Sequence to fold (105 residues):
Amino acid sequence: MLRHPISKKDKKSLLQEISRLYSFLNLDYDQPFEHGRDDEGEYLILGRDIVLFKTGSKWIPSLKYIIKNNIKPSPVLYVDRGAVNALLRGADLMAPGVRGVEGSF
Fold:
């Protein structure tokens, strides 16, 4: 993978775009971000962690980074086992299957 530091100008515009889409990441401008590229795509890297990867023209947060930093994107909806099975078969979610909500939709 090829890696290089991001210029201040590029970092500012990139972090503004990402903050609009993923405010829960709380990325700090002063952190030493790098841009990475390989055969599979582009990456935004912080230290040894891939923070975001690019698919098409859209940046997507790395699940590994979210879990490692205990970031909880909200809102979260908790459903019972019966609802999970129905949802996996393509059904709509019904109110009786909802067991809890964190955040607001």
